[in-house]
Amino acid sequence: MDAAAAARFAGLALKCLHAEYPNHISHTMDGDADARPPHALYPAFYGCYDWHSDVHGHWLLVRLLRLFPDAPFAPTARTELARSLTTEAIAGEIVYLQRADRASFERPYGLAWLLQLSAELRSWNDPQARAWASVLRPLEAEAAAR
């Protein structure tokens, strides 16, 4: 992949990473309190139309940053990844997954992208990537355990 293709792919991911709407939500609701906007349901991965596409977009940006660390899109990509990969946002993702009625949520496709994102972060020798991998580790463990 050349730098121009990387920039095009990064632009696609950056355009939707935190674009909450339109959004496709598929989850069981047991009452009015379960009818919440995407950012409240899954605070790290609420963009790109659906959860697995947003996780995939995060993976794509991490991969592109690893391959093209000095690309013009790199500072924006780092900022947007840092916006998502926080302890608080990942804790919210864990809460979402832990409900018994969500045992089949995004399986296997979406959770496979989550594991790919974790693997990509762990394989990148970068201080910020190591911090993000550490923040993501509890969600990775929750996903793998289910």
Description:
- Helices cover 63% and strands 0% of the residues.
- It has 7 helices and no strands.
- Helix 6 runs antiparallel to helix 7.
Total of DSSP H or I helical runs spanning 4+ residues: 7
- Strand proportion: under 5%
SSE pattern: HHHHHHH
The Rg value, from CA coordinates, equals: 15 Å
- Overall mean pLDDT stands at 95
Helical content, roughly?
55-70%
Poorly predicted sequence stretches spanning 5 or more consecutive residues: none
Outline, from the CA principal axes? globular
- Please give the largest β-sheet: none
Distance between the termini: 35 Å
Question: Secondary-structure blueprint of this entry?
Answer:
Layout: H1 3-16, H2 38-41, H3 51-67, H4 74-84, H5 87-98, H6 109-123, H7 127-145
Helix pairs in contact: 1-3, 3-4, 3-6, 5-7, 6-7
Task: Please supply descriptive tags for the structure shown above.
mainly alpha; 146 residues; 63% helix
Short description:
The protein is an all-alpha fold. It contains 7 helices and no strands.
